[in-house]
Amino acid sequence: MSLFSYAGLQFARQRRIPFLLEVNAPLAREHAEHRQMELTDFAVSIEQVLLAEADRIIAVSSEIRDFAISCGAKPGRIAVLPNAADSIFLDAETWAAETGRPFTVGFVGSLKSWHGLSELLEAFSRFSKKAPDSLLLLVGDGPERLNLEALADKLEIAEKIEWAGEIPHDSVPRFLGRMDVAVAPYPQIPHFYFSPLKIAEYMASGRTIVASRIGQMAEILDNRKTALLYKPGSIQSLAACLLRLAGDRNFRECLGKNAREASKNRTWRDNARVILKLAEEAAEELRP
């Protein structure tokens, strides 16, 4: 789904073929809240038509499913299909066996305010006081970079942070392999509709995951089995999770192994098979 995009539905109806709509976000609402946009009411109207008329809707999260239903989508036509990971992440190498390297806490993603990185820096500051031989590895770039660098200076942890910057996607597994713990520190966000790609990639690469208990992450991740979950926005709880994992390598390895096992059928190829089946079902319904 994209803003003001009606042509796909029109073309499908003219050709009498199924119209499948993947929905990643409530786009009109998102743009109205975070960006300048003209013709908001028109965008909402088109969005509602698309959702009501689609033969199948692929919603990336339960929150998106509920949003689609509120716009008139038929519940029986909606499939919740979270984002997946490329198969290259199944082969992520690990540096865990190397001696003399710092305990590494990592994050992969854009440096934007809704990713909770200021909370991560605060929590890492507390954690590193008790685990001085530690490193925070931030993979990605974005508009919050300067603010985060200033915060790191204020917290006196600048020398403990490695800024990897923006890297090619096929290089991400190599950086994940350096992480003892991979974090998804989302703050408390109303209507958390995201399907974080980082979670799928963390799981596929067998990382030990710490994530806030919010939205789809609380549905996909099993606390104390495939990850450690904490209350969104709780710096103290995040720091406590890091400290616990730093002191228990066996527990870390168990969480990582379980996460990889739980994600073994969550590649993009697996998602493609599901979507093809949905298309076949919809095509059968359209046959005279």
What does the model show?
With 288 residues, the protein is of the alpha/beta class. The chain folds into 2 domains: 7-84 and 267-286, Glycogen Phosphorylase B (Rossmann fold, 3-Layer(aba) Sandwich), CATH 3.40.50; 87-262, Glycogen Phosphorylase B (Rossmann fold). 45% of the residues lie in helices and 14% in strands. It is built from 12 helices and 9 strands. The protein has helices spanning 7-15, 27-34, 40-53, 62-70, 117-130, 145-155, 172-176, 197-204, 215-220, 235-246, 249-262, 268-286; strands spanning 20-23, 56-59, 78-80, 103-108, 134-139, 161-165, 181-184, 209-212, 228-230. It has a 6-stranded parallel sheet with strand order 6-5-4-7-8-9, sandwiched between helices. A 3-stranded parallel sheet has the order 1-2-3, with helices on both faces. β2 (56-59), α4 (62-70) and β3 (78-80) form a beta-alpha-beta unit. The protein is globular, with a radius of gyration of 21 Å. The model has no long low-confidence stretch (mean pLDDT 93).
